[in-house]
Amino acid sequence: MFYHVKELQYHAKPDRPDPLFAKQLQEVLGGQFGEISVALQYLFQGWSVRGNGKYKDLLMDTGAEELAHIEMLATMIARLLDGAPVGDLETAAKDPIIGAILGGMNPQHAIVSGLGAMPADSVGNRWTADYIIASGNLLADFRANLNAESQGRLQAVRLYEATNDRGVKDMLSWLIARDTMHQNQWYAAICELEAKENIVVPSTFPRQKEKREVSYVLFNYSQGDQSAKGRWANGPSMDGEGTFKYVQNPQPYGEKPKLMPAPKYIHDTLPAVLRNDDIPPNLA
Amino acid sequence: MFYHVKELQYHAKPDRPDPLFAKQLQEVLGGQFGEISVALQYLFQGWSVRGNGKYKDLLMDTGAEELAHIEMLATMIARLLDGAPVGDLETAAKDPIIGAILGGMNPQHAIVSGLGAMPADSVGNRWTADYIIASGNLLADFRANLNAESQGRLQAVRLYEATNDRGVKDMLSWLIARDTMHQNQWYAAICELEAKENIVVPSTFPRQKEKREVSYVLFNYSQGDQSAKGRWANGPSMDGEGTFKYVQNPQPYGEKPKLMPAPKYIHDTLPAVLRNDDIPPNLA
Amino acid sequence: MFYHVKELQYHAKPDRPDPLFAKQLQEVLGGQFGEISVALQYLFQGWSVRGNGKYKDLLMDTGAEELAHIEMLATMIARLLDGAPVGDLETAAKDPIIGAILGGMNPQHAIVSGLGAMPADSVGNRWTADYIIASGNLLADFRANLNAESQGRLQAVRLYEATNDRGVKDMLSWLIARDTMHQNQWYAAICELEAKENIVVPSTFPRQKEKREVSYVLFNYSQGDQSAKGRWANGPSMDGEGTFKYVQNPQPYGEKPKLMPAPKYIHDTLPAVLRNDDIPPNLA
Amino acid sequence: MFYHVKELQYHAKPDRPDPLFAKQLQEVLGGQFGEISVALQYLFQGWSVRGNGKYKDLLMDTGAEELAHIEMLATMIARLLDGAPVGDLETAAKDPIIGAILGGMNPQHAIVSGLGAMPADSVGNRWTADYIIASGNLLADFRANLNAESQGRLQAVRLYEATNDRGVKDMLSWLIARDTMHQNQWYAAICELEAKENIVVPSTFPRQKEKREVSYVLFNYSQGDQSAKGRWANGPSMDGEGTFKYVQNPQPYGEKPKLMPAPKYIHDTLPAVLRNDDIPPNLA
Amino acid sequence: MFYHVKELQYHAKPDRPDPLFAKQLQEVLGGQFGEISVALQYLFQGWSVRGNGKYKDLLMDTGAEELAHIEMLATMIARLLDGAPVGDLETAAKDPIIGAILGGMNPQHAIVSGLGAMPADSVGNRWTADYIIASGNLLADFRANLNAESQGRLQAVRLYEATNDRGVKDMLSWLIARDTMHQNQWYAAICELEAKENIVVPSTFPRQKEKREVSYVLFNYSQGDQSAKGRWANGPSMDGEGTFKYVQNPQPYGEKPKLMPAPKYIHDTLPAVLRNDDIPPNLA
Amino acid sequence: MFYHVKELQYHAKPDRPDPLFAKQLQEVLGGQFGEISVALQYLFQGWSVRGNGKYKDLLMDTGAEELAHIEMLATMIARLLDGAPVGDLETAAKDPIIGAILGGMNPQHAIVSGLGAMPADSVGNRWTADYIIASGNLLADFRANLNAESQGRLQAVRLYEATNDRGVKDMLSWLIARDTMHQNQWYAAICELEAKENIVVPSTFPRQKEKREVSYVLFNYSQGDQSAKGRWANGPSMDGEGTFKYVQNPQPYGEKPKLMPAPKYIHDTLPAVLRNDDIPPNLA
């Protein structure tokens, strides 16, 4: 169950409106690695943990915090949109700055949301649960989380570099710091789980059931052998279960597939037509 | 540029048709962590690397291999669909096994693809590029890759457990082994990059610009303090730049937001209406 | 900012597992009118209110409650999936009940989420922000909310009718009661706003700017005149600004459109080709 | 069955081309509350009515009219795109007005549709049936319709405010007037159904089956008690079946959920790992 | 503008309900090549034609007819759903036929649409305008139409083969015949346009501007030379402008791409890291 | 199985960066008819062919080539983005050219992909497998392919017209030439299959099972009889099986549909309410 307090986790006040930047900032609210994604990802992972210890609690702590980040960004975007102009080409032609705003802002910020933030990314794609990950295997999922915080911090940093507004920069410096913590925290949790299990997910599948002769082989499918110079092509494997091997000219292990004809009631192209490789006489 | 050879990377032949399992197997072909996702993810990352060394080559090697995995799965699914029945409730009522197939198989395998594999997941959602990640920052992206191979191997293992067909199990044992390699390889590449940079992505953003007082703090937003027992709440931070700290009762740093009224031409609810918190007389 | 407590708002424990019903129950978690939709809809509306009175507070109260409902449903679905079987056609053929489960359950509940709830509807479509509405105009949005609670209660009732499980029914009886309250509450809020403004949204657009001669006219575009018998075709209009009128044989007010040719660099079909309405001689 | 006449329902001719405004106007053609949405929503509702009286006829009348509105907007957008320029940065740099058009117009209007309207919204999201609602319960659905016409009129008004083109304004004044009628008409139909049934949808579910003790309770989940001042927190409920009640400090009715471990073949994180809340020795 | 008459274009009455088949039949209503797709495709093409002759009229004729087909299918599906059962595993376990229906039907037909047709395909994906095509170039678009009618008739035939219901077969025999006409009609229109223009779309682009040396070359990128035996590898090209040529071992015409480093403020992986191809000492 | 060589199929180097054009060029990379679409369409068709002759080989040849085109476009787009600026309104206000870039470029090119190409179209919609077609019937699918190459060449030509950059034009002249070949090749393959089968797809469905009396009839559903002047309304049908016929005033063959009431547990509007067409007394 959740309680809401009206104060923001941190300040979210720009120096001045900037509808162009409001559009860009949507990326970290409603984009693939925006705050909606991490909030719902952590909460769904938490609700699915089949046990009630510290990992579940950590997920719920962080999921609840990310809800507060959605709130901060929604507030900031609404303020960046304060007094945003509307208009057509005639309006745009009169004033280059207004013109740049009208051409460059997200038109849905005026027409659809009435100058409010939207659950969408910086080009207007609505948020989708395609973005989130929850598998029931925590090592797998904490890797998803570490990635999400890495991508998210990268995007926040790029936005920080793109603005001169001190209020926006101040809020972003908070979010960037929290992403630093979240990268550290998932990293720590991953280390714990790797120490208890193994680096290969899932650790519970018996290794003899996999085709072990190719478990540590790098196949060189792209011409050139620069990739032979990496740690992944030399020495003991990272999971301590084998030795890396580099194959310069990988050959197929399988054969040319030949599929059976489809049943008649499917009305695929008939085998007789497929077998007949000549050019029909009238076309020859 | 790409060349195709007709032989499969590995065998893809089931013991017998099974349209229900064909539907399930679509998950690792066209689902969020299916082979289409990893193939295009690695290729797009590779094409965007701004430098031509071993990391780019590794991405192209692996991207090209994943194309071969799409091919193996497409072949296997077509064979699992061999001779799949079609029919209505009357047909289903006559034979419980046929009925189970008709009720449980993906109807598009008959109606749409004519017993071919589809670029879709196990419930029929078409594949979307929402699933893939390429940021230009390789440490971030290799974490995405390690996650993808972790989720992918987990799904392949679950499918392996779900079938009795030796041919399917044989192919899955190949794919699971390759996922073992790919987890090892991205793990190794991540270790290299973390050694050269720092574990926090991006490593190039000056730390003094982030709000450092909250860079290593765990806020306890979910009642109960189980999360205080983790490595993430104790000792030096994983990035070596600070010390973890646990905050039992996190308080807001910000204030209640109050937004400015919208311009009149937006036709949001008027400030006068919003301010008037009484119940209208005729409703009281 | 949000705090989470670990207790559920209400019990979420089924009498026994039922993976088929777990799939159906996803509809009110992650479907168009599921709890994710109402939670995010109310929160986004709340964050966008440009004023801090009772309407904003009501939105935040209810949005926070809906987060608790997501949690209850996620918990219930995970329990309905307890011990869900996996298997292929061979497994299905041995036991009709297992066969029905394997054919009828959502395969992603096993393969993807590891027996956890998913942010998806009952056929597996992932949740999308296409479902939510926040315009900045509260009367419009409260109507969206009343609709959402009407559709949501209808779906919950249909699910209630579909199960014999007393635990599930108990939880649904809670959600249905809350939907009763939420319908009542948005209804009351709508009455307040209609009393302060007008029933036509937005009330702030000057009526003389609209084409008033057709503001209260029912055009009979579907043959037959049953629709003439409704309140909408007789007497004063509901907004008190006009009189309803029924037009039996509506005629066009406009003319046949004729578009200008496209510029040459667009390479649309050339005007000369379009103008030439004869059949080419070799085809005649 | 449908017949088409070539005349438009109303004029759709702008004073002059304006590719920027063409992009914005797409919102009310192919957006969430555009004319495609209402046309298909009313038609699907009408086709599903299980009875042939005035409500079905009203739906078919209005659905057919909305098809005419799609046509008007498609015509208007094509004309706003007349002679739209194409070009790159070099072209843009030469003339600020051309530059504003090239930067601000929807590039698909040139590349994809060849200066025709698209079934998409103002940021280019293609129309999706996610937007439409048809439940078989007319009171629920008419509420959806009233909402759609409220949001739609709001968007049309915002577009009206944004243009100086008299031709566009003239067409919008028609559409706004029709939205006035449609709001009035669904309002009237709702009043009829509420008079015959009850305001709570569905009215046919026996009230004793819902958890009645919380059917009229406002839980204060957001700190601060502004929401206590509304009609929804005081007096008899709107449905006449109870009395509103305000709960200042809502407590959980449920308990902490504890999920059973997953079966072994799912390969979720093992219970032993989850139970082990200590920090592994090598990390401590 | 459109008028609706209440009679169906043709009968749409099954012999008996069949919720499983209702689900399958959704494919030709709301799938990629269902009636919604062709209706909106033809109408959007028609509205965009920049000229008012026979091609536009043909598009409007056929678009209006397809609306009638949506209506027939919506009616048929509602009747196939008559009295569809609802229930959980307990219900399913009691009667294998009911169990097959509950497992195999689309659960949204009960929960969401209340036994009405949905704007979705046979696996429940909602219809999307991603499916439709309108470019302003009629030869291109008529090819899209011929394809749509080919795919659509193929799907209708597969459904015809799958049912024993005489009422359903009767309706499908109508739709299949109309698809025969529509394939013939677009074929005829294509012949007319190819006679007036050229088979290559667009015909208006000066051929000397394309890289003519590869305009008629088949590159053998897939090992094996079966493709050398087709008409496409021999003789004059189909457009009469060149001669087909087969290249056994295609070589690259380009060079290895080398991208410039990204600007610092993008925070991609630094050039120094990318250049450093050694294994870091602590990993070697 | 696939091998990759690092050289590009053809050069992909612009004269100078142009982030606006990079955004436009995304259309032919990741749009509905971009290179991802044709690559995966041809490969999926090829993998599904149930026979191993020249048609399958042709599909694999061309599918592999299209992968090379994705690569060329990804390279070109990355180069067009070289040194793309970032910034807010303050930056934009200082320099009109920079302002035009910031307003007009795809913000995700900076924030998300770090100046790399994206699997998305020119307005930022991510690529989806909704775009691709593979039915198992080659005549149907080759028509889809001919359409794809027609739409694709049309879009490439429009982009060619829109740029002054000689490097971009050079690459496009290659792609346009290849589209010329691909239109010719699918055209040739279609001719072969039509010669072996019949122009109507599928050719294997017995004609007596379709409602032959309407197999060659043009119904005039759009007022005006321009469409009577086409080849499709006169003379023998294109498939040689009948004679075209034009029906001026098409009448319904069916009757008004009347649906049965829904079962009580669905809670649709009750029949009693639907039958009651009077206005309730309190509203009259």
Automatic annotation (TrEMBL), chains A, B, C, D, E, F:
CDD domains: Mn_catalase
Family: Belongs to the manganese catalase family.
Gene3D superfamilies associated with the record: 1.20.1260.10, manganese catalase, domain 2, chain A
One matching Pfam family: Mn_catalase
Name this protein carries in UniProt: Manganese catalase family protein
Origin superkingdom: Bacteria
